[in-house]
Amino acid sequence: MRHWIRQFESHTNGRTDIEKVLVGNKSDMTDEKMIEAEQGTALAAEFGMSFFETSAKTGLNVQTAFISLA
Prior knowledge:
With 70 residues, the protein is an alpha+beta fold. The protein is built from 3 helices and 2 strands, in the order αβαβα. A two-stranded parallel sheet has the order 1-2. The chain starts with a helix and ends with a helix.
C-alpha cells in the first residue's frame, strides 16, 4: 500500500493541497478481512489522511468518506 501512496504522491508533484483518504472496502466481509482497522488507521496517519472502512454492498461509510473529501 505504501507503494501506491508514494506513486500517487510522485504524480502530484509534491502538491499538499490535494485531499485524500484511505478506504478499506468490503467491511461487510469480516471473515475475509486482510487488514485490521488499526493498521489502516496507522497507515493513513503516516501519510496525513483519514481512514474509512466501507462497504459498497451495505453502504457503510461510503457517503462519509466522500463527504470528508468535500
